[in-house]
Amino acid sequence: MVSKDELQRFFDAEFPHSRFDIESLGERMAVIRKPITGAHLRPGGTVSGPVLMEVADAALYVALLGTLGLVALAVTTNLNINFMRKPRADRDVIAECRLLKVGKTMVIGEVSLYSDGEPEPVAHATGTYAIPPVR
What pLDDT, on a 0 to 100 scale, did the predictor assign at position 70? Predict the structure, then answer.
């Protein structure tokens, strides 16, 4: 398994445009934090849907790489999200991911997204990643 610090360095180097912090990492799970700024808000003062989708996708990828190792060519093949309530504009977004299936060619997971400190999720996502064949 890849360490949390090793994986954070990987993301900081390979995806510098996608700033987030890995809060915790375990077998088939990950929790990440996305700091929210004014650039992430849409009219009406809420975190935009594309930002929430980015965080959900990133949480899935972190959990996958934390479980399988640095499989950099794994790709998202499906991402479905349900927006449940308005995220707080003044709070970070926390994504809690759990992998439901880890196979040889496919990984399926679910992500609950929260405004930091709030008990109810703002969104719920499911996603599928394709794993490249081992050569």
Answer: 86
Label residue 120 exposed, middle or buried (CB < 10 Å: 0-12, 13-18, 19+).
Answer: exposed
Name the burial class of residue 89, with classes exposed (0-12), middle (13-18) and buried (19+) by CB atoms within 10 angstroms of its CB.
Answer: middle
pTM score, whole prediction: 0.94
- For residue 31, pLDDT beyond 80: yes
Quick check: 113 and 121 in contact, CB under 8 A? yes
The answer on pLDDT for 95 being more than 80 is yes
How many Å apart are CA 31 and CA 7, to the nearest integer? 13
Residues 71, 65 contacting (CB under 8 angstroms): yes
Domains and CATH numbers, the chain: 4-130 (3.10.129.10)
The DSSP result for 46-91, as a single string, is EE-HHHHHHHHHHHHHHHHHHHH---TT-EEEEEEEEE-SPPPTTS
